[in-house]
């Protein structure tokens, strides 16, 4: 891996007075004499708001104006600062927003050895091909390609993640015989499939999650047995 400390020291740090002001506002709200609601929040109590703010940002990106994106980015940033301030006040294993930034800096430098080190990756495809290798070097304790895939992802997004991890093992899932030509057609087909499922009293999200659970179990069996099934049928039979 690339030494994270050397190249970053050469980068010119720019002042961020507005960011510092936002941090100061948050600290004031959570300090004695500030806002009682803010002071009582925990990582767990804020989770729902983090999810909501992330979805509102996605909506702004997909359907809003640049000003909407600006506002929603601020809300997501505030959630990060809020969690860091909660962590700083913990009696055990405290950390600050500076620690969060330092960890993120080290991670990004480590995952870009083609920029900060001597690795060659001149195209986006080459970077993507090396990305999982660099991640594995950072996290040697992970024993499965499925480690780190959040269980709370929406089923479709989780499906893409699991399929990508499976492909890394040489495991493929047979695609449709009539693949869609673009995302517009794909969306219409998915919507029609959900409508058909609803008409039969079936829940599409739960059904896909069940299929993904079978796929995940099959991948773990393949890893344990040192085998690489070639199709999804091999995995879930």
List keywords for this structure.
237 residues, mainly alpha, Helix Hairpins, 2 domains, 12 helices, globular, disordered C terminus, MazG-like_dom
Offer a concise description of the structure.
InterPro entries: MazG-like_dom (IPR004518), NTP-PPase_MazG-like_N (IPR048015), NTP_PyrPHydrolase_MazG (IPR011551). This protein is mainly alpha-helical and 237 residues long.
Could you tell me the number of beta strands? Answer: 0
**CATH-defined fold name of the largest domain:** Helix Hairpins
User: Strand content of the residues, in percent?
Assistant: under 5%
Low-confidence stretches: 229-237
Biggest sheet descriptor = none
Coarse structural class: mainly alpha
| CATH A-level architecture of the largest domain | Orthogonal Bundle
The CATH top-level class label of the largest domain = Mainly Alpha
User: What's the rounded overall pLDDT mean?
Assistant: 85
Number of distinct helices: 12
Tally the structural domains.
2
Query: In angstroms, what separates the terminal alpha carbons?
Result: 40 Å
Assign the CATH superfamily of the largest domain. MazG-like
Which outline best applies?
globular
Helix content percent band: 55-70%
Following the backbone from N to C, one meets helices and strands in this order, namely HHHHHHHHHHHH
Radius of gyration: 22 Å
Protein name: MazG family protein
Organism: Microcella humidisoli
Domain NTP pyrophosphohydrolase MazG-like: 41-116
Pfam families: MazG
């Amino acid at each position: 891996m690339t030494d994270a400390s050397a190249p970053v020291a050469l980068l010119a740090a720019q002042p961020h007075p507005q960011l510092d002001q936002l941090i100061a506002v948050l600290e004031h709200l959570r300090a004695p004499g500030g806002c009682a609601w803010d002071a009582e929040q925990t990582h767990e109590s804020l989770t729902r708001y983090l999810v909501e703010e992330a979805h509102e940002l996605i909506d702004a990106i997909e359907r809003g104006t640049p000003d909407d994106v600006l506002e929603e980015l601020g809300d997501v940033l505030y959630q990060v600062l809020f969690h860091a301030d909660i962590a700083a006040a913990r009696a055990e294993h405290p950390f600050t927003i500076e620690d969060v930034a330092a960890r993120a800096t080290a991670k990004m430098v480590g995952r870009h050895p083609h920029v900060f080190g001597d690795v060659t990756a001149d195209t986006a495809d080459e970077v993507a091909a090396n990305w999982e290798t660099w991640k594995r070097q950072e996290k040697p304790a992970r024993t499965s390609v499925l480690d780190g895939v959040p269980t709370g992802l929406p089923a479709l997004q989780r499906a893409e993640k699991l399929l990508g991890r499976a492909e890394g093992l040489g495991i493929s899932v047979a695609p449709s015989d009539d693949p869609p030509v673009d995302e517009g057609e794909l969306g219409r087909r998915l919507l029609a499939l959900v409508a058909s499922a609803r008409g039969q009293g079936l829940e599409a999200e739960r059904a896909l999650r069940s299929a993904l659970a079978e796929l995940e179990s099959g991948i773990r069996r393949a890893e344990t047995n040192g085998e690489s099934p070639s199709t999804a049928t091999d995995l879930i039979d």
